Amino acid sequence: MPAAQRIGVVVGSLRRDSFNRRLAQALASMAPDGWALEIVEIRELPLYDQDDDGSPAEPVRRFKERIAGCRGVIFVTPEYNRSIPGVLKNALDHGSRPYGRGVWSGKPAGVLGISPGALGTALAQQHLRSVLASLAMPTLAQPEVYLQARDGFFAADGGIADDATRRLVQGWLDAFVAWVQQQADA
Amino acid sequence: MPAAQRIGVVVGSLRRDSFNRRLAQALASMAPDGWALEIVEIRELPLYDQDDDGSPAEPVRRFKERIAGCRGVIFVTPEYNRSIPGVLKNALDHGSRPYGRGVWSGKPAGVLGISPGALGTALAQQHLRSVLASLAMPTLAQPEVYLQARDGFFAADGGIADDATRRLVQGWLDAFVAWVQQQADA
Amino acid sequence: MPAAQRIGVVVGSLRRDSFNRRLAQALASMAPDGWALEIVEIRELPLYDQDDDGSPAEPVRRFKERIAGCRGVIFVTPEYNRSIPGVLKNALDHGSRPYGRGVWSGKPAGVLGISPGALGTALAQQHLRSVLASLAMPTLAQPEVYLQARDGFFAADGGIADDATRRLVQGWLDAFVAWVQQQADA
Amino acid sequence: MPAAQRIGVVVGSLRRDSFNRRLAQALASMAPDGWALEIVEIRELPLYDQDDDGSPAEPVRRFKERIAGCRGVIFVTPEYNRSIPGVLKNALDHGSRPYGRGVWSGKPAGVLGISPGALGTALAQQHLRSVLASLAMPTLAQPEVYLQARDGFFAADGGIADDATRRLVQGWLDAFVAWVQQQADA
């Protein structure tokens, strides 16, 4: 049996019990056959400083290697102040440098998020799309998924409790995997 | 010889001598073999009013038909007040309605623009990309091209005078055509 | 008794029964003493064409005059394709031209919207803010109000039915009027 | 003589010889009488993690205190991947938390940037404005200043070498100080 193809999942929040981290874990359990979703951590990355480009810290090297080994990347992110968290942008900046040696270019991307508010990270997602375009990442345009966190959103086993919501997210993930294949086959 | 495949070009300015219209015309003359670029006019479209969805005006019907017949769409647009012109957004709105009967979804898109200022329509282009994503149009992410209009930008025959700039735009157009094929082959 | 000070209200939808038009009307009935909110219509404006700058159509002249006579402007807008409607941007473009003779600069602005979806026009509002900044309109930053249209949102008399929502909108309007005064006193 | 009123300056780049840091220093030397511009460093801030809200690290406490003591804040930032650097957004996130105890709200803000490219940080600035609006910071709308870094941009004494550019930046700074006073007087 061939090894599953890897899709990296970058979570925009460092909080241990983050809704978005739990969503990423739920997502991982929903991966279709032949695909494996793996969370790529950003917690150990230093603040990006161009002066370090010549001798990147070990966590930077590791982060870039892991992203480079993925067939696609899913960003699961909260919204902070109507944008993406600084910690997520910091990871994107690290992965894009030094000039000419970034790891994002050409990698298919998907965007997802959950928040306590009704807006469901819509503004963070839209801004993230602009950044991903500048990184030359072909990004799944539709469907968009905006999730509102409520008590009981996650079942005891970590999955998405509500049937309709779970189907929505499964549909999104299937569309994303098809998108990754489409970009690769071309 | 098989008919050329059509790519629609929508110009964001109504001004007769618009730099962007002239850029669209120059672009049309640079189409690779097997492809034809055709400007799809937006000047006759009424202001979009949802009350007319049931009985669209003739120019609306025609506009949607022409877009529907294209393999991809290039938007060549100036920047008005740090965004796209209202007339261009009006055309996008018409093409997206009524719900479920829009013509944009799935059609590969490209974004280009020229302006007298140094920013070269960068803010208009970025906003347009967000709108195109919401319309489910897979949009060429890179290269981005920002052109500054100067005297002598266009040669007497309507082409782009400067060699380096012409090669830049030709490179963009070739990348766009490859993008259209890639999306279609998938 | 001195004449009330006028605040213009521009509605982003042309639909007769538009939720946003009804919200604008409800808002007008909530104006504090000494202030009058008047809807400034955009329906008769032609598509903006720079070639007409020298001889603007009568509706353009009238629109600009009415805006020029207002102490501030409230934009009440739906979201079309994750941005503001083209018809609203068209009105903004008209009011900004010709160069040096626009009517927006320095006029305090507020942004509001209602939509059937949960996002409540958040993406339209954010984009509109960017445009208003480029027009040099000092725009009330907080509170933001995102309203979701539901059956029974409006009472029989046209007001906002739900008490909490009405207080939210009244609070927003009071903050906006204070904002207009603050900018003027300076 | 009364103490000068303080304006904080936050630089979006950590690079030692950053153009934007040098621009911030040049700006500080141009402060009008009665005002002092002080760079507030962001380099020691940890990655924001909501789990630390209860016991913020010392650099976080210090950063928030210094911002709280300023009459206004100027952001001088490069553009990374068509947005603001993650390190700057990280500082904005820190200053905004925990909920109800942020330091940004109501503080007048200004946005400036310099980059090697022709776009001069236009896309970073526009995005930053959206974030500042969500933080309830009244932000100077016009003039906008987009600076392109070239050899010799800075004179030997650290000032801006070119006369016209220096006047442009001085005009911007004067407008910003007037903006700070206007917001405060209200």
UniProtKB/TrEMBL annotation, chains A, B, C, D:
NADPH-dependent FMN reductase-like domain boundaries: 6-147
Name of the protein described by the UniProt record: Chromate reductase
Organism for this UniProt entry: Rubrivivax gelatinosus (Rhodocyclus gelatinosus)
GO cellular component, one term: cytosol
Pfam families, per the entry: FMN_red (PF03358)
Gene Ontology molecular function: FMN binding; oxidoreductase activity
TM regions (residue ranges): none
